[in-house]
Amino acid sequence: MEGSRGRMAFIPHILLLLFLLLITTSTTTSSTLRRPLKPCKTLILYFHDIIYNGLNAANATAAIVASPAWANRTILAGQNHFGDVVVFDDPITLDNNLHSPPVGRAQGMYLYDKKEIYNAWLGFSFVLNSTDYKGTISFIGTDPTLNKTRDVSVVGGTGDFFMTRGVATLMTDAFEGDVYFRLRVDVKLYECY
Amino acid sequence: MEGSRGRMAFIPHILLLLFLLLITTSTTTSSTLRRPLKPCKTLILYFHDIIYNGLNAANATAAIVASPAWANRTILAGQNHFGDVVVFDDPITLDNNLHSPPVGRAQGMYLYDKKEIYNAWLGFSFVLNSTDYKGTISFIGTDPTLNKTRDVSVVGGTGDFFMTRGVATLMTDAFEGDVYFRLRVDVKLYECY
Amino acid sequence: MEGSRGRMAFIPHILLLLFLLLITTSTTTSSTLRRPLKPCKTLILYFHDIIYNGLNAANATAAIVASPAWANRTILAGQNHFGDVVVFDDPITLDNNLHSPPVGRAQGMYLYDKKEIYNAWLGFSFVLNSTDYKGTISFIGTDPTLNKTRDVSVVGGTGDFFMTRGVATLMTDAFEGDVYFRLRVDVKLYECY
């Protein structure tokens, strides 16, 4: 008799557990997920873009490769560079010094896509190769460059960043005419494997 | 004695629960996931692309910025525009009227990549800025433009669309020569945070 | 008395289970995930890129559409093609024979982004259309083409590859001057629906 009471007391627990299990399972398969409170990995990195302007072939890390019919590929186009496509291979550093030892390269392209203000669309990857990290992180998104901060999406990764996802906050850390800019990138990864 | 029976009756339950837990855990870490039955968020939006053709500089929202050696950047290339790259900053509206108040901009690029038919590869983002939504959604994929519907991938997002993923169905809602087209985009998000 | 012992013996189990449940739940919502041991789907495919060089208009599946100011769109640029953007629509085959029946097309673009070595950034999709698979897989990433193998990210998919993610390993299977190359792609998908 006492034993059966033990079992009865057990039943609500079982129900509670099954309920919790159902919640857990449905969290896994349904589409509305709890927003992660904090990243599983954070990186603060800087990259340095030196745009070819006809005079700096030796130092340039980027070049205009496409432009609209009314512009050319040596000078950034009028109307806030609308239509210019730039390919780059920029050094990544841990601080804001162009001459610090690079920990990798930022590679890909950006294109200016708005007439009224400086606005870019970015598709690029960080290729990290240091004692800390080896692997790539790929980014996609829009960059309204005059905003103090702007977020782009981290859509994938390889190596130490296998399958990662997250958000990166871009900040213009320096801007010198149409020749040099430096971006600070706060990479916040919310899926790490 | 009764108590030990209570405990024994409990053991199969424990095993069942552990088994269920293992299933749940493996659902979490294994790779084959249950296909979500319905999106966690759906948006139906239209965007309007007015391509620069040498005559419409004031209204154009898009421009050819690259083309193959045999073509130029004012007129879309022969062979179904193969090789043309177009940069755009198009208004997004809630209905099919170009003059409706925009809720955001579609920004990025498309490139025509097939000689035999009109076929595009897309990389772009929606930048939504309305009372309903603030944030970006990024898209990647192929667009066989003559198909009634075609799916591209939603690969990331920021703001209200933090880390989102899903599929977007494109439909050509209007097409006027080589100057204007309007796409209806049914965005179906299956991961929302 | 025996019954209450039964219940007491039960309590640690409940705690253990709740603890396990918490772990499971937090695995679901937290960001550090167990690395999947093996892919849920694997594909080994080849694609064939025939670059337009001014003489092969009929056969070419790819064309230079953008280049830096110092180069043109008929001949790949000096400095390891830095700045060249190539648009392609390449046949995909199950083996390394260009003339095997294609199972789909690889469509998108690559851009050479490094002066010192051949290095590309890729944005493209596989459009598969065979009895085995119908759907698209989209890729983003860097391709240091001289490495024996290099990984890019699978960032999305549609159709049979709805919402997929993973990693693809690229290997140069053949390379003939600046006119033809063949890539072997080992697609490893770790999220399948």
From TrEMBL, chains A, B, C:
GO cellular component entries: apoplast
GO BP annotations, alphabetical order: phenylpropanoid biosynthetic process
Subcellular location: Secreted, Extracellular space, Apoplast
Signal peptide per UniProt: 1-30
Gene3D superfamilies: Allene oxide cyclase-like (2.40.480.10)
Record-linked Pfam families: Dirigent
Alphabetical list of PANTHER family matching this protein: DIRIGENT PROTEIN
Biological function: Dirigent proteins impart stereoselectivity on the phenoxy radical-coupling reaction, yielding optically active lignans from two molecules of coniferyl alcohol in the biosynthesis of lignans, flavonolignans, and alkaloids and thus plays a central role in plant secondary metabolism.
Record text on subunit structure and interactions: Homodimer.
Sequence similarity: Belongs to the plant dirigent protein family.
Name of this protein: Dirigent protein
